[in-house]
Amino acid sequence: xxxTLSRGDQLEGFLARVPIVETLGMRCxxxxxxxxxxxxxxxxxxxxxxxxxxxGGAIGTFLELTAMAQLYLVSDTERxxxxxxxxxDYLRQGRAEDLYARARVIKLGRRMASVTAEAWQSERDxxxxxxxxxxxxxxx
Amino acid sequence: xxxxxxxxxxxxxxxxxxxxxxxxxxxxxxxxxxKVTRVEQGHIWGLQPFADHLVGDxxxxxIHGGVITTMLDNLCGMACAASLEEFRFVAxxxxxxxxxxxxxxxxDIIGEAECYHVTKxxxxxxAWAYHENRDKVIATAQGAFAINKPRPKASLGVPE
Lengths: 140, 160
Known about the structure:
Oligomer: heterodimer
Number of strands of chain B: 8
Distance between the termini of chain A: 17 Å
Radius of gyration of chain B: 16 Å
Shape of chain A: globular
Order of helices and strands of chain A: HHEEEEHEEEE
Strand content of chain A: 35-45%
Low-confidence stretches of chain A: none
């Protein structure tokens, strides 16, 4: 079956079955090997009520999932990669609005990959947070 | 400022009395369901109960790493609050998480965070996630937090 489905279709089918993706409410806009992810705003994503800011953990989860999804899109492994480590830089407060992200696979090795991701809101050149991570590719 | 949070000792005492409230006022923490279980000066423990809606690895029924990020980020911030002499809000500058071994499917995860150094504007933290004890960690984390300038009407965020 996997021969007939594009990598993007496979990714969407996979993400649809992952509970945390649904809990977060994350969506993907995939065009070939190009993808932008969207985290539509919901009250439950808030970390601080007083200033109505998104929770750093929700932003971090979204970025990690985006990085993993992009890696899946450009690699040929059957299963998703496993996270070795991630560093998230929080650059601006995430406001009570939709959050978008894109990731780039910096290096795709045989066993490991290095990936960066960036999240933003209304202005593309004002990132809310960036992620840099290393992932272990699961070859069967 | 509220007298009850003016001194560190009083603040720690208040945090101990309101351990449930500390996460209850944080919507995303309520969604992931982690709880604060112990408060010492500059050191906080928490528990992330296993829940199906947090699973990231369907095959092995393991909760997603982002849920650990959420708990450790939050616990580190609280460790700062339990360490600063004066009450201040802190904001995560960065957080690095290293995964030592996968979490086991269907199991709760314990989190522990420590604020180990504080300067005028930055607090430095480290944290651990494990099933039983720190001898066998699932993940370690290190985070730096910006210490914000005092705000009028500061509150600890615990229910009145």
